[in-house]
Write a structure and sequence with these properties.
Blueprint: E1 4-5, H1 8-15, E2 24-32, H2 41-52, E3 61-64, E4 74-77, H3 83-86, E5 87-91, H4 98-109, E6 120-126, E7 132-140, H5 146-158, H6 181-193, H7 195-214, H8 217-224, E8 243-251, H9 252-262, H10 266-284, E9 293-300, E10 314-321, H11 328-347, H12 351-360, H13 363-373, H14 376-380, E11 388-393, E12 401-402, E13 405-413, E14 422-429, E15 432-440, H15 447-464
Parallel strand pairs: 5-6, 9-11, 11-14
Antiparallel strand pairs: 1-4, 2-7, 2-13, 3-4, 6-7, 8-15, 9-10, 12-13, 14-15
Helix pairs in contact: 1-13, 7-12, 9-10, 10-11, 10-15
């Protein structure tokens, strides 16, 4: 593949990584073990990965840093790729319930990936109750975003079918030796020399878009408007490397029934559930701010026409979530309005233009800015753009499997950053909505309670929509 430079957005996930904040995103597949007594989850999964690494370049490429950090790093195919370093076999202790699995995941996401290897790991986890096992994958955000990760998982667990372990594995393409530092530096200097031309082109595009937006007084007001004020909560502080993780599942059919009954969207239902749960959690902590919380909501800007699908195509909108409203009906109504406002503000300028801005600044400047932004003293002063990240990722609509082992849940496991010690990511899979919650262990030690409050708020929304609740 030669050397391929990371985009500014891809590289930013490396620059923002510290000894406390890690840039990987993960997922857990929960599978039923088939009746076949000869079925071995690790053998089946490793055999599938052995065949997949030849087709999926992100699994084989590793970082090559530019000397002195003068510019963004490059990708190069790893000439020493070792599948057994990446695919691992572990087990949870008895009784193998959700608590044991959650603890194992929490420990894993609190450790960084090795930057001298391709930036991913996968764990086949046995010992789960109900005759189940899990596959936990951990991949750095610089390599792939959530939408591309879901696409990769869907292709691997739906297209390949049952692996015949007797088939010969085709050899991997021979990778070139890693380039010498002087060669990388020379290439970086050549790329930097072309940066001013890209900057001029970007400035012309920006001026054109600003002129277009400026012709409307309403758009001018939106563009000039400030982002919502961010109140303080117990989880808006500098984080530690220690994590909590837990997950819950709700029927997607019931989410859609609430949406239909209340005349809103699926995303509005998800956001209202999170807002109500956060409000009740903060009330229990005697820490509910008077002002509404602010959520950062990642949005995919993929068009399907990308030349390289294995890169980040993601932006974010910032919206208030009505944690200040006591009435759940008022909350879900307010969510629709604030989401529409946030999307309108986000759409005023093309997302590609905003993403390109990250690639214009030389790596040295971008890295220095990231170090300032991740200083724990900044996080502890409350200077954070949002209280919490809430992400709703559409997942596969068709069932996935590992050979004859069907996937029952596809749980997202995201990351937290300084100043935002809580992440709530929701992903649909067939007729299920799986909620993955990640927190800093010290800022939210009782994450299970917050997860249960999400289920309680979901029951409240069902009652509001006139649906039967779990207690009926």
């Amino acid at each position: 593949m030669g050397l391929a430079q990371l985009s500014g957005l891809d590289a930013s996930f490396l620059y923002l990584e510290t000894g406390r904040s890690f840039g990987h995103v993960s997922s857990i597949l929960i599978l039923d073990r088939p009746d076949d007594p000869t079925f071995d989850p690790y053998t089946e999964y490793r055999a599938r990965m052995e065949r997949a690494v030849g087709d999926y370049l992100p699994l084989r490429r590793r970082l090559v840093e530019v000397p002195f950090g003068l510019d963004h790093p490059y990708w190069a195919e790893d000439p020493d790729f070792d599948l057994d370093f990446h695919v691992r076999h572990v087990a949870v202790p008895p009784p193998g319930g959700s608590g044991e699995l959650d603890s194992l995941i929490a420990r894993s996401i609190g450790r960084p990936l090795d930057r001298n290897k391709p930036l991913w790991e996968a764990y086949v986890i046995e010992g789960l109750e109900n005759n189940q096992f899990a596959i936990f994958t951990k991949m750095h955000h610089s390599t792939i975003d959530g939408a591309a990760g879901a696409m990769l998982t869907q292709q691997m667990f739906s297209d390949m079918g049952t692996v015949d372990l007797r088939d010969e594995v085709p050899p991997l393409p021979k990778a070139d030796p890693l380039p010498r530092p002087t060669d990388v530096l020379n290439k970086a200097m050549f790329d930097l020399a072309r940066r001013p031309r890209r900057m001029l082109k970007w400035q012309r595009q920006l001026a054109k878009e600003l002129f277009r937006v400026g012709r409307s007084s309403e758009n001018r007001a939106e563009l000039a408007g400030t982002l919502p004020g961010v109140p303080r909560t117990p989880f808006n502080a500098a984080i530690t490397p220690n994590r909590r993780f837990t997950w819950r599942a709700i029927p997607l059919s019931e989410v859609k029934a609430i949406k239909t009954a209340l005349g809103c969207t699926v995303n509005d239902v998800v956001m209202a559930m999170c807002a109500g749960a956060l409000r009740n959690y903060l009330i229990e902590q005697d820490a509910l701010p008077d002002d509404p919380l602010v959520a950062m909501v990642p949005v995919s800007i993929r068009t399907g026409d990308e030349v390289d699908p294995w890169t980040n195509r993601v932006s974010s909108i910032f919206v208030t979530i009505p944690t200040d409203l006591e009435n759940p009906e008022e909350r879900i109504g307010a969510i629709g309005a604030t989401m529409a406002e946030g999307k309108h503000r986000h759409d005023l300028l093309p997302a590609d233009l905003i993403v390109e801005a990250a690639s214009i600044a030389p790596g040295l400047i971008a890295h220095t800015a990231a170090r300032i932004a991740t200083n724990p003293r900044v996080a502890n002063t409350g200077r954070t753009p949002a209280n919490v990240t809430i992400s709703n990722v559409p997942g596969p609509r068709e069932p996935l499997s590992l050979g004859d082992a069907p996937v029952r849940h596809y749980v997202p496991v995201s990351t937290v950053v300084d100043g935002q010690g809580l992440n709530i990511t929701v992903q649909s899979y067939c007729d299920t909505l799986d909620l993955g919650l990640v927190s800093c262990r010290e800022l939210i030690p009782d994450l299970d309670r917050l997860a249960e409050l999400h289920l309680e708020e979901f029951e409240t929304l069902k009652s509001l929509a006139g649906l039967a609740t779990a207690s009926e």
